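User: quick one, fold this
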Amino acid sequence: MEKLKRMLDVDIDRVEEDGNKVIVFVPEGQAAKAIGSNGCVVRSVELVLDRELEVKESS
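Assistant:
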């Protein structure tokens, strides 16, 4: 989880795993930063973890 937090460069509220998918909940307003320009941050994390990544805002 610490590695994931460092790669996304945002606070992480919680992480859920669903099969081959990792769902990361971030504070409201930080999802865009976590996703990156055109999804580049998400894609690079997916390549490192070899798993699909989904970023959602906490409510």
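User: anything notable?
Assistant: Helices lie at 2-8, 31-35, 40-49.
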